[in-house]
Amino acid sequence: MTIDIAVMLDIALDAVHCGTQRLKTQAVQQVMAKGDRDVATDLDHTIEREILAFLAERTPSIDRFGEESGGNPATPHRWILDPIDGTLNLVHGLPLYGVSLALTDGIRPLLGVISLPALDRTYWAAPGIGAWQDGNPIAPSTVTGLPEAMIAIGDYGTGDDGPERNAVAVALHAALAPVAGKVRMLGSAAVDLALVADGTLDASITLGNRDWDMAAGVAIARAAGAAVTDTDGSPHDSRSLTTIATAPGLTGSVLHLLATAATGTRYDRRATAC
Asked: Which end is more exposed in the chain, N or C (fewer Cβ atoms within 10 Å of the end residue's Cβ)?
């Protein structure tokens, strides 16, 4: 299948705009538990249903996958949607959440769009088009030393692998505490990656890799010029164990700290290059 990236990006921007308008004009009416310390809202389902329907109409030959409704995750070209990344932030009134949409080739994102309605920002990117925030080109920070760096770490894990992920996260916090400028946990992978892309954050470390959380942000951060890797420093893709996005001058330092924290866990299976 031949994909016109510029056309697909315009469609993605239109689709995300629909979800943004919902988030700006409609309040959450219902919060539903959907797993260990995880929730969805009526807005998650409404936005996902509307965006997937829009994409089905505009790109009927491309499969679609949404966090809440699922889909076919194995087809080569597919849209990947997180209708609200940072749902718990939204529920608690913390203005760090957004709509995240990517088009992938099954392994890597081809383009990404992230809207952060409460911050009134929209990010988009694709190879050959670059990375943009509201029409302005963006780039990662030029920080090269950990003492000057602001680093975001993803949420603590839940579910069956939560204890193992959390042991690494605690060790990572301990390793960063004496050397990093500041450490933050913002509660949204889309926010983390967008803010690495525009240089607000200097690095983001997420001890997991789910396409709906990561794909759009990875596309944007990578197109902006950030390094986006797995634990061992290999280029990030859908098979990666972790999602590490850094300003180019921080990659080695961040990977070294993560490798030290991950020693003896499943996260160091491919850490020999660190």
From this structure: N
